[in-house]
Amino acid sequence: MSDERFERLQKASNPRRATQDDAGTLSRLFAASFLNDPVFDWIARPGPKRAAGLERFFYWLLQVRAIPFGEVWMADDGATAAAWLPPGTPASPGGLFEQIKLLPLFVRLCGFPRLGRGSAMADAMEKHHPHDDHFYLAFLAVAPRFQGMGLGSAILEATLKRADEAHMPAYLENSNSKNTRLYERSGFVTQKSISPNGAPPLMAMWRDAR
What we know:
Helix content: 40-55%
Number of strands: 7
CATH topology: Aminopeptidase
Oligomer: single chain
Largest sheet: 7 strands, mixed
Distance between the termini: 31 Å
CATH superfamily: Gcn5-related N-acetyltransferase (GNAT)
Strand content: 15-25%
């Protein structure tokens, strides 16, 4: 194992809690990690504006929906991060007024031609989201240049300890079949695809409390 890989694995295995000051750095990390993700490839606008739309989406998600709840964790070098929502946190913003306010954000992400796709995917995720208390892994990201080094597994195992300490189950939606083994190694079990018609598989995965 190279010295660089060892150092990055150490940092991924000992993540720190992200703050609002990290939102910009992490939004770029998540946007780069999900730029070619199958589900985001289906809902996000094609072309050169995609990266900017993704970055803006993740910045909102982190700053407003995730970081305030204290369960976004990152390696200190910014190479990987895991955005969790703790038990009792709404999985999506509620209320018509809140959704209207977010319309410009989703237009920027999807473009008008794919806005219906984004809405259908969001509705499917909300419909199938578990009602039992659980930790929800909204997104896990590894910088593209460091993928394949084991950093995703390292930060996943480190942050799952939060759920285990609370004796709580965990849930995620896997948007890329390449990551299935990673989640299975950590105890997640695939339940079903929750994608709307015509969309790539989005697999609901559940991990029982330990």
